[in-house]
Recover the amino acids of this structure.
C-alpha cells in the first residue's frame, strides 16, 4: 500500500492544484453523501447523538475543508524574498512543495474528525496519504476503510485497519511525514520509529487543560460554558477543561452554579439525553469510576457499567495529590480546587506539564496579560472553552508534553509541505 501511494506521488500529478482541489471535492462529497452512515457509526462507537456527531465531526471537517478550498490557490503562490545588494541582479522566492507519502494515525474520541481534518491538509499540500483509524472506534474505522478509497481513489488515499500489530508494521515503513493524535506514551513510540527514517512528525497529544476562574467572573455564565465544553463527547476531548482553579472565595459559589448548569443542560437524568455520549469501552469506564472517590461529589457520580454511562460529575474538596489530578481525566469528571489568588493559580499551572489548552474566565485585562505572559500552553482561551478549534486561522497544537507541531488552515499546508528557498542569479 505504501509503495502504491509512493508510485502515485512519483507520477507528479498530485502537485497539480487541480488534482488537489479534485481530491478535496471528492472528500466533500463523501462527507455530505455519507453523513447518515457516519452518524450511525459514531453513535455505535461513542453513543454520539446526531446533532453532536454532525457539529463536532462532520460539520467541523466540512468547515475546515471549505476554508482550505477558498484559500488554497493563494496559499500556494510563491512568496517573493528580498535579495541583498551584493547578489544583484537576482531574484528569490519561497515555494511550498509536497512531501510525498503521509501517514495519519487517528484516535478514537473524534474518530472521523481527527482522521479527516489532517487528511484535508495533507491532500491540499499535494501528498498521498495512508490513514490508520482507531481500532477502539470500529464502526467508524470500517466506514472509513470502505468509503475513503471509494470516493478519493485508492491511488490517492489508502486505509489500514487494525491495532498494535498493524500500527507497528506501518511504523516500520518509510513515510515522508507522520501525523499522530493520541497519548504521550504512544507518541514516544511513533517518534522513535520515525527517527529511524529521519521522518518528521506532528504529535497532537493532550494533558490536563486547566481553567482559571477569577474573582470578577460572572459565575453563572462561567458554569454554563464550562459544562458545555467539559461534558461534550462525555468529556472525551483532548482540550476539554480538565480541572478548575477557583480564585479567592469563588469555589463554593461556582460549585452551586455548576450543579445548576448541569441540570439545565442535561435534565434530571442525563442518561436519557440522546445527545449525551457514552464512555468508549469498559476499560476506560473502570478507570474513570475509580477516580470518583477523589473528592466530594457536587453533582453526578451515577454510572452504569453495562451501558458505559457516567453522569456529568463535579468534584470538590479535591487534593492536588489525588489520583484524579495525576493524569488527564478524559471523561466527564470536573474537579474544582480553590486557590488563594492569581499568583497561586499561575504557580499551580507552571509547576505541571505544559497543557494543550489553558482557559480563563475573567474581565480583567491585567489578568489576561499575566496569563498570556507568565504561562505556556498550546492555546490560551478566555471565556469559551474548546472554541479555538473551530477558528481555522488559529494554529492548533501543543507544546512540551502536550505535543509538537500544529495544523488547521494554512498551518496544515506548512505542516505537510516543504518550504523551499529558490534563488535565481542570471549568468550575465
Amino acid at each position: 500500500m505504501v509503495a502504491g501511494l509512493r508510485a502515485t506521488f512519483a507520477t507528479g500529478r498530485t502537485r497539480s492544484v487541480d488534482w488537489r482541489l479534485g481530491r478535496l471535492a471528492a472528500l466533500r462529497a463523501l462527507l455530505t453523501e455519507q453523513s447518515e452512515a457516519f452518524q450511525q457509526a459514531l453513535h455505535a462507537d461513542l453513543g454520539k447523538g446526531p446533532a453532536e456527531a454532525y457539529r463536532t465531526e462532520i460539520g467541523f471537517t466540512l468547515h475546515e475543508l471549505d476554508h482550505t478550498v477558498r484559500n488554497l490557490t493563494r496559499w500556494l503562490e510563491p512568496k517573493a524574498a528580498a535579495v541583498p545588494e551584493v547578489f544583484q541582479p537576482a531574484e528569490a522566492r519561497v515555494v511550498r512543495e509536497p512531501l510525498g507519502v503521509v501517514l495519519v494515525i487517528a484516535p478514537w474520541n473524534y474518530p472521523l474528525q481527527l482522521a479527516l481534518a489532517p487528511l484535508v491538509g495533507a491532500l491540499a499540500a499535494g501528498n498521498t496519504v495512508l490513514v490508520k483509524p482507531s481500532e477502539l472506534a470500529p464502526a467508524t474505522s470500517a466506514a472509513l476503510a470502505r468509503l475513503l478509497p471509494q470516493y478519493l481513489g485508492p491511488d490517492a488515499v489508502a486505509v489500514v485497519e487494525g491495532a498494535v500489530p498493524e500500527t507497528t508494521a506501518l511504523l516500520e515503513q518509510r513515510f515522508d511525514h507522520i501525523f499522530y493524535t493520541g497519548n504521550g506514551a504512544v507518541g514516544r513510540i511513533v517518534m522513535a520509529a520515525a527517527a529511524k527514517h529521519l521522518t518528521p512528525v506532528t504529535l497532537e497529544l493532550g494533558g490536563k487543560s486547566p481553567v482559571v476562574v477569577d474573582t470578577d467572573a460572572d459565575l453563572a455564565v462561567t458554569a454554563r460554558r464550562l459544562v458545555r465544553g467539559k461534558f461534550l463527547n462525555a468529556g472525551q476531548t483532548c482540550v476539554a477543561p480538565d480541572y478548575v482553579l477557583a480564585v479567592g472565595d469563588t469555589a463554593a459559589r461556582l460549585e452551586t452554579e455548576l450543579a445548576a448548569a448541569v441540570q439545565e443542560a442535561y435534565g434530571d437524568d442525563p442518561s436519557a439525553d440522546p445527545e449525551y455520549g457514552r464512555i468508549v469501552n469498559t476499560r476506560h469506564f473502570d478507570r474513570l469510576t475509580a477516580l470518583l472517590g477523589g473528592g466530594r461529589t457536587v453533582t453526578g457520580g451515577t454510572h452504569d457499567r453495562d451501558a458505559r454511562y457516567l453522569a456529568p460529575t463535579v468534584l470538590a474538596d479535591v487534593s492536588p495529590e489525588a489520583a484524579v489530578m495525576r493524569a488527564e481525566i478524559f471523561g466527564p469528571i470536573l474537579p474544582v480546587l480553590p486557590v488563594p489568588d492569581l499568583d497561586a493559580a499561575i504557580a499551580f499551572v507552571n509547576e505541571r506539564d505544559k497543557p494543550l489548552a489553558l482557559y480563563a474566565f475573567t474581565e480583567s485585562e491585567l489578568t489576561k496579560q499575566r496569563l498570556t505572559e507568565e504561562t505556556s500552553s498550546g492555546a490560551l482561551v478566555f471565556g469559551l472553552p474548546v472554541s479555538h478549534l473551530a477558528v481555522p486561522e488559529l494554529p492548533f497544537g501543543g507544546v512540551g508534553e502536550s505535543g509538537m507541531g500544529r495544523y488547521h488552515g494554512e498551518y496544515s499546508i506548512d505542516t505537510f509541505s516543504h518550504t523551499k528557498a529558490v534563488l535565481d542569479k542570471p549568468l550575465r
